[in-house]
Amino acid sequence: MKLHAMPLAETTAALRRGARDLHAHIDAVCDQIDAVELEVQALLPEAARRARLHRDADALLARFPRPDHRPPLFGALAGVKDILHVDGFVTRAGASVPPEEFAGEEAAAVGRLREAGALILGKTVTTEFAYFEPGPTRNPHNLTHTPGGSSSGSAAAVAAGLCDLALGTQTIGSVIRPAAFCGVVGFKPTLGRIPTEGLVYFSRTSDHIGLFTQDIAGMRLAAASLCSDYLDITITDADIPVLGVPDGPFLRQAEPAALASFNQQLERLAAAGYTIWHVPALLEIAELNQLHRRLVFGEFAREHARLYAKYKDLYRPRTAEIIEAGRKVSDSELAELRQMALVLRDSLEKQMDQAGIDLWICPSALGPAPAGLHATGDPNMNLPWTHVGMPAVTLPAGHAANGLPLGIQLVAPTLEDEALLAWAELVATDLASEK
Asked: I need a surface site. Which of 144, 154, 320, 412 has the fewest CB within 10 A?
């Protein structure tokens, strides 16, 4: 399958100054959708998408006729995961429950996209209620492999060039993992930096809204428009971050081939001048993996108490299973689990400070995208960072022996999103170089 290159920063710069015609851009993207969407199945169907986008483009051009007054994401075509409300679109959340049960006001994140000049391309496929029951989406790099989840459609759509950027969500590993599987950039900000109002919640404690782009420069551009109080910073080659590898059982969760590739990437960064410390961390990862699931399952059961009682037979087996598990988590245990997450965050950030580490670095997933469409892969390489709400980004980092993409994950202290993305751009440049 031919993938379509759509670097967000370059595309929007051309659209803002008028060097690229907005209507021509829409036609090019819709042509790509016509060519590959039947195979990828990343988008929810829309009969008159092209005509609607041309009308939206006319309205946007009428609002911003002067190139020097155009907002940063002018004309970017954005996919939105189908658990976020978008005016004019039905929210189905990947489920069979009647969609009127989810009706609500447009998500705040979608409103920020519109304010920044983006056009809504459409809804992207999600697993059922953003958990493990997959939708029809396939990995554009190999259609017999999963694209990951739960933001399956968002990751695959960006990878295939069906949109310039996309919104997803992460409660365990649902942005970073599919981005890595599909060979694109994925960003999960500090918990709450992108507002979650207008989301069909899984876990109000752990739900993060994140982003997908093909390029890290485009991710910085998008994050500046969507993250609250974002103040972009400049990083030079003299500001190379100190990287910390969380050695121990957490890292050993990754497949041997993925670890071998990760170590090769570390060698390349060391050759480029990075200081890399190996620090024992997350030593109780097996316990943490279970505790985080108890937290989010308990909250999910509470979110769905009314709907599950009414539509139990419409819930798919793995989703029903976690509701039943979550009902056994008491309110007092939930409160304790939330507090434990804060304690762990403080511990990880104190460890970074004591070791002189700017960023944690680790694989983005246990390995490349698994074969088959019955499951979406294991999120455990992302779980601790989601649990504590620290910002994380994944960058494409080579390929597995089977040709599928691999990713490298960088994690910063809470609220250091700007530094994380600036450093990630530096790391991406050095990984792509021949140093």
From this structure: 144
Q: Residue 137 and residue 159: Cα distance in Å, rounded?
A: 12
The SS3 assignment for 356 reads coil
CA angle, corner 177, sides to 173 and 179, nearest 5? 130
The H-or-E segment that residue 337 falls in is helix 331-355
Query: d(Cα 51, Cα 45) in Å, to the nearest integer?
Result: 14
In this structure, the number of other CB atoms found within 10 A of the CB of residue 151 comes to 39
Q: What is the pLDDT of residues 38-69, one digit of tens each?
A: 999 999 999 999 999 999 999 999 999 999 99
Give me the pLDDT at residue 1, please.
Answer: 79
The answer to whether the predicted template modeling score (pTM) of the entire model surpasses 0.90 is yes
Any residues with CB less than 8 A from the CB of 106 and at least 6 apart, and which? 85, 86, 87, 198
Contact 248/288 with Cβ under 8 angstroms? Answer: no
| Tally of CA atoms within 13 A in the half-sphere of 271 that contains its CB | 12
Instruction: Say what the pLDDT of residue 435 is.
Output: 40
- Contact call for residues 74 and 12 (beta carbons, < 8 A): yes
The alpha helices in 168-316, defined as continuous H runs, are 176-182, 216-226, 256-271, 285-303, 305-311
> Between β-strands 119-124 and 77-81, what pairing exists: parallel, antiparallel or unpaired?
parallel
Measure the CA–CA gap between 147 and 164, rounded to whole angstroms. 18
Weakest-pLDDT range from 203-207, 222-226, 429-433: 429-433
Q: 77 and 118 in contact (C-beta within 8 Å)?
A: yes
Arithmetic mean of pLDDT over the chain: 97
Whether omega before 150 lies within 30 degrees of 0, making that bond cis, reads yes
Cα dist from 435 to 237, 267, 395, 430, whole Å: 14, 10, 18, 7
- φ, ψ (nearest 5 deg) of residue 363: -60, 150
Rounded to 10 degrees, the C-alpha dihedral 125/128/132/133 comes to: -90
Q: Which two tokens stand for residue 427?
A: 């790391």
The label of the residue with tokens 């200081």 reads 275
Three-state DSSP at 335 gives helix
Residues designated catalytic: 81, 150, 174
Taking the C-alpha atoms of residue 113 and residue 120, their distance in angstroms, rounded to an integer, is: 8
Q: Could you say which DSSP state residue 162 is in?
A: S
Which of the 8 DSSP states describes residue 94? T
Do residues 79 and 46 touch, judged by C-beta distance below 8 A? no
